[in-house]
TrEMBL record:
<dbReference type="Pfam" id="PF00196">
    <property type="entry name" value="GerE"/>
</dbReference>
<dbReference type="InterPro" id="IPR027417">
    <property type="entry name" value="P-loop_NTPase"/>
</dbReference>
<dbReference type="InterPro" id="IPR000792">
    <property type="entry name" value="Tscrpt_reg_LuxR_C"/>
</dbReference>
<protein>
    <submittedName>
        <fullName>LuxR family transcriptional regulator</fullName>
    </submittedName>
</protein>
<keyword id="KW-0547">Nucleotide-binding</keyword>
<feature type="domain" description="HTH luxR-type">
    <location>
        <begin position="872"/>
        <end position="933"/>
    </location>
</feature>
<keyword id="KW-0067">ATP-binding</keyword>
<dbReference type="InterPro" id="IPR036388">
    <property type="entry name" value="WH-like_DNA-bd_sf"/>
</dbReference>
<dbReference type="InterPro" id="IPR016032">
    <property type="entry name" value="Sig_transdc_resp-reg_C-effctor"/>
</dbReference>
<dbReference type="Pfam" id="PF13191">
    <property type="entry name" value="AAA_16"/>
</dbReference>
<dbReference type="InterPro" id="IPR041664">
    <property type="entry name" value="AAA_16"/>
</dbReference>
Amino acid sequence: MNNPSSPVLVGRTSELRILIEAMARPPAVVLVEGEAGIGKTRLVHAALDRLVSGDRPVLLGYCHQIREPFPYGPVVEALREVAGRLPAAEALNPVTGALRDYLPELSHVLPPSPPRLNDPRAERHRLFRAMRALLAAVGPALLVIEDLHWADDGTRELLRFLADQPPEGLTVVATYRREDLSTPGLPLGRTYRRPPGTTSLVIPLRPLDAPEVNSLACALLNRPDLPPAFVARLHERTAGIPFVVEEVVRSLPDAEGPDALDRAGVPLLLREAMAERMAALSPAAVSAVQAAAVLRLPVGEQLITTVGGDSAGLGQALRAGVLHEHPGGRYGFRHALAQQAVYDAIPGPDRRLAHERAMAALAEVTPPPLVQLAFHSRQAGDIGAWLRHGRAAADQAAALGDTALAIEVLDGMLADPDLPEPDRGPLSLALSRLDTTGLSHQRVERLMRRLLRDDFLSREVRGEARLNLGMVLCNQGGDSSTGRPEILAAVAELHDRPALAARGLAGLAMPEWGTESLATHAEWMARAEELIATADDPGLAAAVLVNRVAFQMSIGSPDAFTVAATLPVADPSTAVRREVARGYCNLHDSATTLGHYAAAEAFGRRGQQLAAESGVLYPAHTVQVSTTRRRWLTGQWEGLRDQAIALVELSTEAPDAWLVLGSLALATGDWEEARRYLYNAGMDAPDARYVPVAVAAAGGLIELHLARGALEHAVTEAVQAVARLRRKGVWVWGAYLVPSAVTALARAGRVQEGAELVAEFADGIAGRLAPAAHAALDHARGALAADRRPAEAADFFARAREAYEALPQPYTAARVGESEARARLALGDRSAAPVLAELAERFGALGATHDAARCRRALRDLGVESPLPRGRKGGAGPLSPREKEVARLVALGRTNREIADVLFLSTRTVETHVATVLRKLGLRSRTEVAPPV
């Protein structure tokens, strides 16, 4: 038999060139896609061999088919290679200290660990920032993640984060099998859009054609050529998959004729090629290889020899190339196909005994690898151990935040035909109870729907599972239109379990979701309280009480704060305190909507504290999200956009953050961004979204249409949004809609309709503890009178301005102050001009550049000098404030006409500013302009 040399890379000339060029133009994100054995790893390493110098570290991480719960493990594994390349700890970004627990090997060169954050979402975002900062500190680097199809959700989200905001000089390369992705077609879990300035490629690898198979086989056999009939037969049998070609050719005794493959008795399949290679090994080596196949993962020498074989046999298997050494002194197969081929060839009784030995060996490991123990116990036929380890593995994964793995374990157990019938119900409930976020809730939904379609669940178990599914859809999924019918169906199935039925009804009673009227919500709440009164379950009783408190606060009930004070904060039960934590977090949101900002902040602080103490995570996240809205309303805009972007990057459900981004874009005149963000906040499907935020988003869209002069669109949006609010009947939420809607109606001449809306709004908020709504009522009255009764309008606007300032809502107060000033100017009161100048300054200080420009335009129309501060004249000095704003809009791709509309300037003036910006920045084209910092 010939002694094959190391194979060359065949048939990948174009792909190799593309990959090398992408690696040479960082920041870059390259995804190499192809089926098992197609040569993804070989292509990547060939590119690295041709490109990498010693000054550019290559950081390698591997995803494994069987993994223990260690979020971000592949990236953490890769980062261990940066030792010796980092600057001193004092030169590192302090946020990298968050990696100490993940990278103990680097603790001596990392800054101190920062205090742990209460919000898990914020903690995760800080960890992501730390990894990005560490990669930035390493300098130009190549991060290679192999087998992304086996990655956990956390690793995918981390890679997506790095891909969205890559450090300068970083190239991320990931290999994956498309057919094995958990989310078909999405290797990073969600649709990836290349950020500006980043090279982004997907390189699909196809099977080799016949000439390429010939080249590979010749290289393997050290032959200048091969018989055409033999090559044709080899191509036919291997389907051109390079790894299969290699394994088959290596097992051939010769290649003298077209029937060589048949004479050798080696058919197409890799398992037979591996069997041929195994036949040449000693019994000790065969035992070592079979032990590695049973263990599946690359493992240490001791574990392989414990399960089967000895060190001498392991050494022979390594020298023969059947096993390979992996980083960290671990040994295994070069490819999963080879492992599977060997495993399938082991006789069943021998496999079972090997799995038993693996169980015994792994049971001695501290901490025990529960996922592996569950796998081996199942393969050994030990159903009791399988159930025990599987449940423990799911619990551990969920506790560590690796929800995707917990789902995977439970799903695998439920899909097993040998699962004992009595265990199916409890495992189904365990799956439905998982606190899922991000991508995982979608998988829970699919699995629970499948389980609910089956007929093995009892009615009681089915009802609870359906209830949990509905809660996940409404809360984490943000899909009330689908989730609420599931909860209603669950309530009917739970008629023998009144406490759980009460929990479902109390969830339906929350008016923030659904299209039902406030009266219907109140009826559901009353039924829930009636059912829970006879139940002996403190946790569920607390859940219903919490929803009652949230219900009262959300509608601005006069006794809302009195009822809130009854929450059992000091209850000894953890289950009760978790519900109370949820209650305080919901109170934070409702109080923010109503305008009780100091109380909201106190509620949020208490809720996050209780959530951390009782170990419940999701409610604390809701505080983090709704805090962005509170910061927006109260004028705390510094860094707010970055905070909101971080939230929407890490969560599929962050409506408040989308609303804030839309509102900020509206204040700066970024019309297209404002429209897109406001639609994401709930206007894409307002009947299925979180109603208070969707109502506010509708108000923002009306303002957007008015700013763009699209009065007809503004009126259409106003009529539709008001109809939805009227159907719901919670008028206190109209604080962020009614003034805009009345403005649109009044400008369109539909004054009577606007007057009826104002009267309806006044009746709806009468007696309610809703300071934001009462301020908005005077705002709406002023808007109604603005064009016809300016003196009356000015008085209403003045009252509204004072109320907004007292809340405080500084931006809205300034907007209403501008309307008041314009009303007084309409009366001939020129003393209102300095007020516009002051408001322009106030808008500018907040960052509301479009509003500031509108005030300055009004001042120019009055012949008053604009208060815009100016930079140095001439030369190549720094950009002036006006030039910075022009540069920002140019960088966003706006035309001169669009910039003129946003900044209330003439097109000629904008042209002059653009020319000055290009000259000062030393650029030739406006396409080169980056947003100023």
